[in-house]
Amino acid sequence: MFLAIVAAVTISAIAAQLLADQEDYLNSTYTLLVDLVVFYSIFGTLFYVDNRKKYKTDLGKVDSPRLKKDLIKIVTSVGAGEIVYMAMRWYLQYYLLTINYEPYAASIITHLISTIAYLAIVNLGVRLTRLYKDDT
Fold first, then answer.
1. Rounded mean pLDDT of 87-95?
2. Does the structure show a pLDDT above 80 at 81?
3. Sign of CA dihedral 49, 81, 79, 63
4. Which of 42, 60, 71, 74 is exposed most, by the fewest CB atoms within 10 A?
5. Could you give the CA distance from residue 85 to residue 20 in angstroms, rounded to a whole number?
């Protein structure tokens, strides 16, 4: 996750600066989209590589019930955090741009603040859904 966050911070800051001539609301929107695409592309790839053997049965088939159960837990845990993250990230970046922060600085600052809130909410969600508790 750390690698995905670092890449998303870096690339979205570059995108924000490249889009500096756009209206503030467009800069915030496009930067958020770049952030999400970069983060989920890297995180999804790394998650798949790390967990591809976890959902295989002894016969080499996919353990669909276990995969489905874990995916529901992940979506539940991450869903609320994502909503808060996207709202905070967009609003804070828009606000900082309207008070004349440099786009790259606004992107980095809002990314860090929003990520802290996201991690706190996801951590709470993981605990509530018992994502890492083995039910077997």
1. 97
2. yes
3. positive
4. 60
5. 22
